[in-house]
Sequence to fold (387 residues):
Amino acid sequence: MPGDGPIGELIRTSTLASWLPPWLSSIILLVGAVAVALTINRYVHRLLDRLLRGEKMPLLRSLKGRLAGPGRAALVLAAMSLVLPALALPQPLAGGLGKIVTVLLVALGGWSAVIAVNIASELHLRRYRIDVDDNLLARKHVTQVRLLCRALDTIIVIMTFSAALMTFDAVREYGVTLFASAGVAGIFAGLAARPLLANFFAGIQIALTQPIRVDDAVVVEGEWGWIEDITSTYVVVKIWDLRRLILPLTYFIEKPFQNWTREGNTIIGSIFLHVDYMAPIEEIRQKFHELAKASSLWDGKVAVLQVTEAKEHTVELRALASASTSPRAWDLRCELREGLITYLRDHHPGVLPRLRMAGAESGAAPSEGQAPAYREPVNPAPWGIHR
Fold:
């Protein structure tokens, strides 16, 4: 019964209990135990602050900050668990307090498990940097760890909530009956939860197979961008013009998309140029190589200029150049395109697309009274944007 044990005997024989009601002295003892626990927690944190002072142990200071909340709650619940069996409280009140402490202990266990998973993931990811050019391995680990941690957090929350419910006798006794009698409701609940479950399992599948990773360059829904974040239900794609495209996780499992950095960070950019048949291809190729070598954006791997099409009025030149990242590839393409335009304008202006008279190629002037015939104009904007 409440009040048994050495602490209960101390309450009954103390001077305070001689002139206070037993329930009031019990409450005072409970509040005092909580105050003592908080005081011990405060002094322990002060001691740890002194021991971890300086710049040599940032990781331990970070761990101390993450564990401050669970540690404080654990001390308070431990003090309450120690005092509750000895309190001289009415049975309903004592039973209710005991049930509350039990539920809080279960919640504390789940909270501690979530923090432990997050700390383990942070310790693992400290070895990988994603803010460098060659970050393929880092992106693999960041994507896997983030998705798996969120999946584990979800599982821990569900298990903690279930364990808390199981502390109530009514749930344990009637749980099977309630589940058996709620067949139709369970079907509707399953249909309603289908998108949530689909995204949950899609997240696990993405973490294991990795069709996308954080910071991948992708083309989705006709938009060029980068994978900015992968949550437990959706993916944030940062568009090149700073817009955000939000897509469910299932999109990247069920629909096709382009991933430009699946096997590495190197991006090959293309430049298309339409010139006259009389254009000096070899000179333009040499100039392109000079421009690429002079650029700090070029990674030194790919620099090729080829004739890819021979049309009715012009030939099409395609120049390919590689860069270490997609933003650098975009800037490199713009820089090389401007350099080639300037070179052709200044040194070979006659090879740029223009209107021609029908007799101009043969050298024959149009006869008197005859209007000159013109061909159809060449594509007035040959410099298309190709991502």
Summary: The chain has three domains: 1-126, 144-262, 267-351. The two ends are 77 Å apart (CA to CA). Residues 11-17, 178-182, 360-387 have pLDDT under 50 and may be disordered. The CA atoms of residues 296 and 332 lie 9 Å apart.
